[in-house]
Specification:
It is a single chain. 27% of the residues lie in helices and 15% in strands. It has helices at residues 8-28, 52-61; strands spanning 66-68, 74-76, 79-84, 90-94.
Length: 113
């Protein structure tokens, strides 16, 4: 009998490697892509989490206004530019041609009081 005690990380890496190898083929053929995670997302609201699994899932499903490059520099993603108008107000120029999953145009107006 083979003991799997202490070998779970190796098994997980092997399974993820197999999924990574199969995923591009399945995606290219129009089949569903299956991604394994270590748990469920606690929320899909990015500002309400600090859990690694939740953040990982959100990074694969949601696109931010801005992101960081490998050197930590802020780079545009959905926002093409931004500027501070005052201490409480920021203006973002949004990338054109983007649509939400339901087909509606990507627009945004948020007011905090």
């Amino acid at each position: 009998m083979i003991s799997w005690a202490g070998r779970a990380p190796i098994a997980i890496v092997m399974v993820l490697g197999l999924v990574a190898e199969m995923a591009p083929v399945n995606f290219a053929q129009g089949r569903p892509m299956i991604i394994a995670t270590s748990g469920d997302a606690e929320t899909m609201e990015p500002v309400r989490t600090g859990v690694g699994t939740t953040e990982s899932i959100q990074r694969h499903m949601l696109e931010p206004l801005m992101a960081n490059d490998p050197d930590g520099k802020i780079i545009p993603v959905l926002a093409t530019s931004w500027r501070a108008i005052d201490n409480w107000t920021w203006e973002f120029k949004l990338r054109s041609g983007v649509r939400f999953q339901n087909g509606e145009p990507f627009t945004l107006e948020i007011t905090f009081k």
